[in-house]
Amino acid sequence: MSVLDSFRLDGRVALVTGASRGLGRGIAVGLAEAGADVAVLDRLECGETAAEISALGRKVHEMRRDLLGVKSEAAGEIVGECVTELGRLDILVNNAGIIRRSGALEFSEEDWEDVVNVNLGSVFYLSQAAARRFVDEGRGGKIINLASVLSYQGGILVPSYSATKGGVANLTRALANEWAGRGINVNAIAPSYFSTDLTANIREDPGRSDALLSRIPAGRWGEPEDLKGAAVFLASEAASYVHGAVVPVDGGWLAR
After folding, report:
1. DSSP annotation of 222
2. Which among 29, 100, 125, 182 is least surrounded, fewest beta carbons within 10 Å?
3. Residue 125 pLDDT > 80, yes or no?
4. What sign does the dihedral 44-48-53-57 (CA atoms) show?
């Protein structure tokens, strides 16, 4: 196999959460461009993402699910549906996430619990369900989590988001320590500030937007397409010896 062939995902099946738009949509389409069939999951309709994947000649299965409150049983059902509809599961991308902004003194219990449940709880339970499938079938698999530059920094007015993204980074390492010997690669991507709905309020605030852009060496917001390369690499055989890595795709944010 040539090095370029090792990046191909032909015959593989990926499950991408939060795939209706933004980073999840970009990743799902990127995996399909590399040859994978894709199950796309979101609490919103994934029709546009599914249409892009179908146009590439790949199989696609849409799953309408809200990951708030998902635990072991529901995670197992999600993985099972993917396998039933697309025949197997090789790659899990835990992309779905939410953010709530408020000062810590005023932060509500609901906002704390919701963010923790989606951003960290669903990541663990879906990873667990996927890994159980990988172990049962004896051929390993790939798990890619979406961390953040706020896995390294505290951020401003986003205590639950920062806490969960720090947790995602360390959960990635912990699962890699346990599962690497079973042929399961667990890694993460850490984006900085991208043009998505999560950053809309910031990008629309001239003062905040200018301050952030001045700190990004690349001088621009990230676009969902900027994550395709990292996602395909971590999902492929090219990354077979990469375990527990948190890969920044941040325009140089962490280098400052």
Report:
1. B
2. 182
3. yes
4. positive
- CATH superfamily of domain region 5-250: NAD(P)-binding Rossmann-like Domain (3.40.50.720)
Q: For this structure, is 161 an active site residue? A: yes
Is residue 165 pLDDT above 90, yes or no? yes
Cβ neighbours for 176, distance < 8 A, ≥ 6 positions apart: 185, 186, 187, 243, 244
68-92 tens-digit pLDDT: 999 999 999 999 999 999 999 999 9
In whole angstroms, give the CA distance from residue 180 to residue 143.
11
Question: What are the residue boundaries of the structural domains of the chain, listed by start?
Answer: 5-250
Confidence of residue 173 (pLDDT cuts 50, 70, 90): very high
Above 80 in pLDDT, residue 198? Answer: no
List CB contacts of 98: < 8 A, sequence separation 6 or more. Answer: 114, 115, 118, 119
Task: From the candidates 125, 161, 193, 241, give the one annotated as an active-site residue.
Answer: 161
Rounded-to-integer distance, Cα 218 and Cα 215, Å: 9
Please say whether the beta carbons of 227 and 191 come within 8 A: yes
